[in-house]
Amino acid sequence: MIYQGKQKIWSDYQKEIPADHWFYARSCIRQNFFPASETHFLKIGRELLGKDICDNEHHTTCGGISYHSDTIPQETAMTIVARQFAIMTECGYKNIAPSCITSFGNYTEILETWREFPELEAKVREMLWKSCRKEFEIPEHVAHTSDIMYTWRNEIAEKAKFRLINKETGEPLRVVEHIGCHYSKMFPHKGVGGAEYPCVLSGMVNSWGGQVIDYPERRHCCGFGFRQYLVKANRGYSISNTHKKFESMEPYKPDMIITNCPGCPYFLDRWQYVIAEMEGRTYGENGFGIPVFTYEEVAGLVLGYDPWDLGLQLHQVAVEPLLDKIGIEYDPKAKYLGLNEKDIMKPGLPENLRCF
Amino acid sequence: MGKLFEELSKDYRLKEGLKTCINCGTCTAICPAAEFYRYDPRKIIDTVQRKDDEEIEALLKSETIWYCGECMSCMTRCPRKNAVGMVIMALRNLSTKLGYFTCSEKGRQLYPLSHALNGNILKYGYCIHPETFRMEDHPEAGPVYEWHLQHKEDSYARAGGNYMQPGPGALRKIDQKDLDELKAIYDITGGTERMETIDRFSEAKAAEMGMSNEEYLKYTFEHCSAGHFNNEEEEL
Description:
The complex is a heterodimer of chains A (356) and B (236). Chain A is built from 15 helices and eight strands. Chain A has 356 residues and is of the alpha/beta class. Chain A has two domains: 17-142, Glutathione S-transferase Yfyf (Class Pi), Chain A, domain 2 (Up-down Bundle), CATH 1.20.1050; 161-341, 3-Layer(aba) Sandwich (Rossmann fold). Chain B folds into two domains: 3-106, Orthogonal Bundle (Fumarate Reductase Iron-sulfur Protein, Chain B, domain 2); 108-222, no CATH class. Helix content of chain B is 57%, strand content 0%. Chain B has 14 helices and no strands.
């Protein structure tokens, strides 16, 4: 195929992502489990790169988890999202940046549905007015926060203190990238690289010196499945899917995993703990697990931020083996301290999964 | 065409998700749920597009429509651009409206799901919240999260959060006016009615099963009968 032809095909997989002026929408799951990732998205964007990002206190959930657990009608989910758009509009912004893949998928689905069925958009506008006396503009751009980090990846690389390279061998670290299903499986043209070649995370890994590894179940779901995790009786589904991925990736000896979805890093981290405790099976070296990170955590590490400021103490799988490989210095005694070095004790240790 | 199919056809997710299925089975091949559960999305689509009310009613009362994880992997791969996951959402929606969800063990899980998720949204503004996250419900969260919950104000502060305080930030206290707006949205758009419908049918089922509402909530959240999975010999 001639070069121009390839370029034309690849252009179908590209997405326009403004690098600046965003209204930030927080994630239900990330606030709970990876709060420092959201903190550092804002810190990197605002303080390091000088970007304009609005973190407004009046926005809420998009309702996506409730919607995909089938506990609210479609109109309720749409009107909650319309309220998010209204607050974005009130704040003077035209672009919305959800910190959550479920939200990103939800916003995308809603906008595509309204485009196809304008009468539904009109109905939602009326319901929003009746319930909240609010009006909204359709966002000019919807980008997941990992899309935005992708546009910043080279600026971050220029300012980086570390690269994703093994300091002993000089070889690139072997990185598994896991894309959240709702990023581009529903609407491939809304994700960088589409559903077939999503490069939102691999682009960051390549820019920061790592080597992305391929493995058979690379695009398999982490196993969240909404009701399939949220209800205790269903979690066999969730852990089985994660187990399938780890069995598939283990022969390729990954050093780390990078993720862009709120739930995926939680499940890939915590189900490793459960598999270790139930079966005695671990996937990392020397009884450790394979450390799992959000893209903000990886950006923060290469930029030289303190690992405990990045919230890595909230992972169940120990991150220290990876920090040692890169050569990032850290204070083991500070890992579980509160703010201003307050002593807040330490967590217990698992029986099988090696942790600190 | 029966009345149930007519009702299903009003759902925008069916309009978007069901074109003409050619029964190739690609959705089943790619489906994470089909690998573990006794679940075949191809058969579900085939049943729906036959438009037979008797068959659709059986589907709405079945376990099978509740096995999907709504990951939407099927949507990417379907050569005819169907979205089985969207059709599943329409089926679940109708099953819930008609109260048929209480006919299946997996359908009855709507009761704990609605209480947890809608309860959190209306009280805290988000679907998940540390104030209602109980370690006995989530042993997989591990010793790190147990420690974190025991010291959550300090631990969130260390991570740059703004736990249950006014102003912006992670896990901030959502202003009452914003929560009132969410409640008004639920009231106007059918969210409140949906919660009441789930409660009404669930509590009637609890009485039929000889349980208090609290016992039913715990039972539906925790109990998994044999026979849901491909590798089990038992039949439900």
